[in-house]
């Protein structure tokens, strides 16, 4: 008779993952650091949204710059950001599929909820033109450019 611990489990045990072992053993970080980083990021995002609301600077660009600065400070200064740095490193090693599955529905909902229906009705023809034939034409020209200029010796068969 096999015990429950010997059976194959459909998930990974937190004690056996390389992520938890590498962070807890080497640097003393904990999963709480990832939550702290996420909370600080939400506060920074909210503050940027409020500060740059009436300006011509898109707040997404400001968030990009803040992310680049925080990442550069963490990876360029021998890990001097403390718990924030540990959180950055934990979030850096997250599975991209999981990140997409968790955040994409919320982002799509927010974007669709804040859409202006009248603006979409006015621009529907242009959107369909760019989404259909525009993508096909762009794909053809980029593929032709790659085949003729960048990779002339490569042989492609369709």
Automatic annotation (TrEMBL):
One of its GO terms (biological process) is potassium ion transport. It comes from the Eukaryota. The chain crosses the membrane at residues 59-77, 97-115, 127-154. Residues 42-149 form the Cation/H+ exchanger transmembrane domain. Keywords: Ion transport, Membrane, Potassium, Potassium transport, Sodium, Sodium transport, Transmembrane, Transmembrane helix, Transport. It is a multi-pass membrane protein. PANTHER family: SODIUM/HYDROGEN EXCHANGER (PTHR10110), SODIUM_HYDROGEN EXCHANGER 8 (PTHR10110:SF165). This is (rape) hypothetical protein. It comes from Brassica napus.
């Amino acid at each position: 008779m096999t015990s429950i611990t010997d059976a194959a489990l459909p998930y990974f045990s937190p004690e056996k993952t390389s992520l938890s072992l590498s962070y807890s053993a080497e640097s003393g970080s904990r999963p709480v650091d990832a939550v702290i980083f996420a909370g600080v990021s939400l506060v920074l995002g909210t503050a940027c949204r409020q500060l740059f609301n009436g300006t011509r600077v898109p707040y997404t660009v400001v968030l990009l710059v803040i992310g680049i600065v925080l990442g550069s400070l963490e990876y360029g200064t021998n890990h001097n950001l403390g718990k924030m740095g540990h959180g950055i490193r934990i979030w850096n090693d997250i599975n991209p599929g999981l990140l997409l599955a968790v955040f994409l529905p919320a982002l799509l909902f927010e974007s669709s909820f804040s859409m202006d229906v009248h603006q979409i009705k006015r621009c529907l023809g242009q959107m369909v033109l760019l989404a259909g034939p525009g993508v096909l034409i762009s794909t053809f020209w980029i593929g032709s450019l790659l085949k003729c200029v960048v990779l002339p010796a490569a042989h492609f068969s369709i």
